[in-house]
Specification:
This protein has strands at 3-6, 9-11, 17-23, 32-38, 45-51, 57-59, 67-72, 77-82, 91-98, 105-108, 112-116. It has 118 residues and is an all-beta fold.
């Protein structure tokens, strides 16, 4: 299964962006779908995820209340709605899929750049 992200770009502080992650196969073949981000000099940061069985979403504390993960199971697509963006949210955002058995995120998209700047 391949994951393809889209929707990144440049936005002013306080603005919004929505990222999409389209899977080439069924998202139900994974335990969960998630989002990570990476900036130079920082480790890959977990942003949030959504479980396949019941669609429950969970978030890292630094984005909770600002970011929302949803899914369209008919389109095998997961979304990351990002509101009230801050300069520290600037990163390459990666979509990831968690293995059905281990629960480990081990399938990755190519990433999409999000830049928050005035």
């Amino acid at each position: 299964v391949h994951l393809v992200e889209s929707g990144g770009g440049l936005v002013h502080p306080g603005g919004s962006l929505r990222l999409s992650c389209a899977a080439s196969g069924s998202i139900f073949s994974f335990h969960a779908m998630g989002w990570y981000r990476q900036t130079p000099g920082r480790n890959n940061e977990f942003v949030g995820g959504i479980t396949s069985t019941d669609g429950d979403a969970y978030y890292a504390h630094y984005v909770k209340g600002r970011f929302t993960i949803t899914r369209d199971t008919a389109k095998n697509t997961v979304y990351l709605q990002m509101n009230n963006l801050k300069p520290e949210d600037t990163a390459v955002y990666y979509c990831a899929a968690a293995d059905l058995e281990s629960g480990a995120y081990n399938t990755w998209g190519q990433g999409t750049q999000v830049t928050v700047s005035s």
